[in-house]
Amino acid sequence: MIQIAIDGPSGAGKSTVAKAVARELGIIYVDTGALYRTIGYFVRSRDVDPKDPEGVAALLPEISVELKYENGRQIVCLNGEDLGDRIRTPEMSMYASAVSAIPAVRAFLLETQRKIARENSVIMDGRDIGTVILPNANVKIFLTASDECRATRRRDELLAKGIEVTYEEVLADMIERDRNDSTRAVAPAVAAEDAILFDNSWMTPDECTAAIIKLIKEKTEI
Ligand code: DC
Fold this sequence. Notes:
This protein has a 5-stranded parallel β-sheet, sandwiched between helices. It has a 3-stranded antiparallel β-sheet with strand order 3-4-5, with helices on one face. Helices cover 50% and strands 17% of the residues. The protein contains 9 helices and 8 strands. It has 222 residues and is of the alpha/beta class. The longest helix is centred in the middle third of the chain and has 17 residues. 2'-deoxycytidine-5'-monophosphate binds next to helix 2, helix 4 and helix 8.
């Protein structure tokens, strides 16, 4: 069993690289941001303020979040329903970031993440994988890129999904979200002490994937 942790800010290309690495190495890719997005979606559907810790915590007993895999693709079900791309909007990014600062939410999602890594070889991406979720991961990578690169990538991703956004909107949202995520009191998005820092601003996705696979092969028996 192998555990690979990839943390870093939004738009650093974590999911693109992690998906490609998972395919190449025949392991499971776990997108943990989707779990926080799912909680955010439920909170929004109940018209609760995502920054209200008590209001959000009171909803948790009504929520069941399940991770499933179909042909290597991750599906997150909220009370049995696959939400698909409904959790991918800029609004849901903000809801996810807000609810992810609430300790009860992090505690609620902890076991789901650890369980999947106990039962499978995984490459897991998020913000606190190397620091909190899988502190003994075989390889820990903290992936970053410049603000400009990350905002351009995120804008292109959203446009490809048919979500109309401008570069300026994406950049402003991204900076706000990164500030929330990296300054919160619980599990802030920071690199683990033993993480390898990797800036891919000037790399193509293929170059970044190849470099990370090389690194994983050097550090593990896979
Ligand atoms: O990776 P993403 O953009 O889908 O994540 C959405 C939000 O969820 C992100 O702004 C912070 C939060 N998150 C987190 O706090 N911890 C994780 N392991 C993954 C995501």
